[in-house]
Design a protein that fits this description.
protein biosynthesis; about 700 residues; two-stranded antiparallel sheet; RNA polymerase I-specific transcription initiation factor RRN3; initiation factor; about 50% helix; mainly alpha
Length: about 700
């Protein structure tokens, strides 16, 4: 139990004759004027902990209850009453149209100048008091304290003055000023409820600050990044506790203030770190914050993949070298690397944009890598007990993000690995993810593109998940097979031949089964001869194997149907399936593949494309069937981000070539493999359809 709450802190300025100031927060008729103590606002010593992060940080003390101002006579400043009279005079004259004193007040409270003109002149005569900067800092504190008592007058007519104060660089000043500034913000919001958005915006805008130069103030001691972050969140937490109605406003602001996708990496990392800190003390926004981070991360993910797709091998190699160099240099702070990168890019922009493209892709990769690394660390404590309700609740949030953000996005390459990793923590979570994909894949009201994407996600998860047990593989295979048979029975009555536009869901489901078979064939076997070694896949070759009931019949019925899926499914997957099925005596489909080579898909195309008129206009080759075949993209293809990949290395089934599977394979590439053997840590474009399979465009 927390001890009795102390009264709301008073900003006490000691003088020889002056009376103490009244409380900085006054009662107001505003809807935001609910008065609370600082203890109720969560500002006691117990709650002023350092911002948590995946990396342990040094505790930074910040006690808002203890605001100490030196005695006035010690700093040689004017009394509080004199400063109050000066502010009152300036505001009165401003109301009458005379802005001279008002402009001086704006300049003073902006904090941009510590010395007055007469101080500078005396400095030239070397008679300036060396303690004068400290005295001026104290005077600025008193100005801000005094201005708080005029909060009811700081309405629309004083926009300029309020803007100057809100733009003041307060994070890099001393601790007393930071405390006074936070209480001024609360007083202003209490007296002027209409300014709440403006006040919160001034705080959220600082979420991107990541370098000392972003908050440093001349003549003030340096302030650490940890202290700056804590000051931000002390202010935000104080305001949210005093004015709960501010939460919808804050939600809008974090959306609008989020860095653009092409902003520097340091800004993205700083903003995400601050959002995750906000998430700890604002439970009402926990889901919204994670949705925001994931949605913006997906945009970076897609842009990165598109940039890679448009790069030739030389530029891709340059990106890999830049990433490796960055890691070898210890991923130094962006305040150094940004400037040096910018200089090197600017020097070459007159010739071409290659360095700009390389730098952009490198930064996007690093944004993805470090943000995902942070998110893995943030979610991990919730899955300490994968069977707990906490784990299930966290995973349900992930499933919501998956269904609404990730699944509809084409080309997402890495973001989905959050659910891949945490979805394998227990069979309960595996079942939850598989069930979600199955529901989406077979809900008729869903768009076809989502149904096909759900099939791909399910197949890729089951095929690549190292912790997905064999009995679940069999169960998923049976469920998909059941739906595949139903689709075939429905479509075959009107089918003239293979047509991806009319029967897309059928082909997506068939390709999912082919993909699962290629990776998890061992789980589909019920018994094998005694000389078969389960740890040696090559020992299964050319053996008489017994398979799960109905699997062979299921595959034969659908492969040899009028729908002819082997003509439409991705050739790389079809080829690998044919080879495995043949060598494991599962089924022999090469005659079907050979006959398909003489078949043109365009003759069965439905709708406006059947005549090829529209395609000729865009230079499509009607003899090229590739545009009418399914793509070979599966969403859990190899994960290559160098820092965060450590989270999924134990969860992921790499493709393991089977020695002797293809007698025609040549083994004369060993020298090339040795050259590439040291590049495991380099981000590349390897996917399940590239050279990972050991043959051209295999699984």
């Amino acid at each position: 139990m927390r001890s009795a709450a102390p009264p709301l802190p008073r900003a006490a300025v000691k003088t020889m004759a002056a009376t103490p100031l009244k409380p900085i927060l006054k009662q107001s008729s505003s809807v935001f004027s609910t008065k609370r103590t600082s203890d109720e606002a969560g500002l006691d010593d117990d709650t002023m902990t350092d911002p948590q992060s995946p990396r342990k940080r040094q505790r930074v003390e910040f006690d808002l209850n203890n605001i100490e101002i030196h005695e006035i006579h010690e700093i040689g400043a004017r009394s509080v009453e004199e400063i109050k009279q000066e502010i009152k005079k300036a505001l009165d004259r401003h109301d009458q149209g005379d802005d001279e004193d008002y402009d001086i007040l704006k300049h003073t409270l902006s904090g941009k100048q510590l010395l007055r003109d007469d101080d500078v002149e005396s400095d030239e005569d070397e008679d300036v008091d060396p303690s004068l900067p400290v005295k001026r800092r104290q005077e600025l504190n008193i100005y801000l304290l005094s201005l708080a008592s005029f909060s009811p007058r700081l309405g629309r007519a004083c926009d300029g003055l309020v803007k100057s104060v809100l733009q003041c660089q307060w994070l890099g000043r001393d601790e007393p000023f930071a405390k006074i500034y936070i209480q001024f913000l609360a007083a202003l919001a209490s007296a002027q409820g209409a300014r709440l958005t403006q006040i919160l915006s001034s705080v959220v805008e600082r979420f991107v600050d990541s370098r000392p130069s972003d908050w440093a103030v001349p003549n003030y001691p340096s302030v650490s990044r940890e202290a700056v972050q804590q000051r931000l969140h002390v202010a935000l937490r104080y305001i949210l506790q005093l004015f709960p109605a501010a939460k919808p406003v804050l939600e809008h602001l974090i959306n609008t203030k989020y860095p653009y996708h092409d902003d520097p990496k340091r800004m993205h990392l700083a903003f995400v770190a601050n959002l995750l800190e906000l998430r700890k003390y604002c439970p009402d926004l926990r889901s919204e914050i994670m949705d925001l981070i994931i949605s913006r991360l997906i945009k970076v993910d897609v842009e990165m993949q598109m940039d890679f797709d448009n790069m030739d091998d030389r530029l891709a190699t340059m990106v890999a070298m830049a990433l490796q160099s960055s890691r070898e240099n210890g991923n130094q702070d962006e305040e150094d690397s940004d400037d040096s990168d910018a200089e090197s890019v600017d020097s070459d922009e007159s010739e071409n944009d290659e360095y700009t493209r390389v730098k952009t892709v490198k930064e996007n990769i690093e944004k993805m890598d470090f943000i995902l690394d942070t998110l893995f660390a943030v979610y991990t404590p919730s899955f300490a007990d994968p069977q707990s309700d906490e784990a299930l609740e966290a995973f349900e949030d992930m499933l919501s993000q998956f269904s609404t953000l990730i699944l509809p996005t084409i080309k997402s390459r890495h973001t989905q690995f959050l659910i891949f990793h945490f979805g394998q923590q227990s069979e309960r979570l595996i079942d939850a993810f598989c069930g979600t994909c199955i529901n989406i894949a077979f809900e008729s009201q869903r768009p076809l593109v989502l149904q096909q994407a759900a099939s791909s996600y399910l197949a890729s998860f089951v095929a690549r998940g190292a912790h997905v047990p064999g009995h679940i593989v069999v169960k998923i295979f049976e469920v998909l097979g059941f739906h595949l048979d139903q689709m075939r029975a429905t479509f075959e009555t009107s089918c003239r031949g293979p047509d991806v536009r009319r029967y897309g869901p059928f082909y997506a489901l068939m390709q999912a089964l082919l993909y699962i078979f290629c990776f998890r064939w061992q789980d589909l076997i019920t018994s094998a001869p005694g000389d078969v070694d389960k740890d040696d896949p090559s020992s299964y070759l050319d053996q008489e194997l017994e398979w799960e009931a109905e699997i062979q019949g299921l595959m034969k019925r659908n492969i040899y149907s009028k729908l002819n899926p082997l003509k439409v499914c991705a050739p790389a997957i079809v080829e690998q399936f044919a080879l495995l099925a043949y060598r494991f005596n599962f089924m022999y489909v090469y005659p079907r593949i050979e006959s398909n080579k003489r078949l043109r898909l365009s003759q069965f195309s439905s709708g406006a494309y059947s005549s090829g008129g529209a395609l000729r206009d865009v230079a499509f080759d009607m003899n090229d069937d590739s545009w009418q075949q399914l793509g070979s993209f599966f969403p859990f293809d190899p994960y290559q981000l160098p820092v965060s990949k450590k989270w999924i290395e134990q969860d992921y089934l790499q493709w393991q070539p089977i020695p002797g599977l293809n007698p025609e394979e040549q083994d004369d590439d060993s020298s090339d493999e040795e050259e590439l053997g040291d590049e495991d840590d380099v981000v590349d474009e390897d996917t399940a359809t590239d050279d990972e399979a050991g043959v051209d465009e295999k699984i």
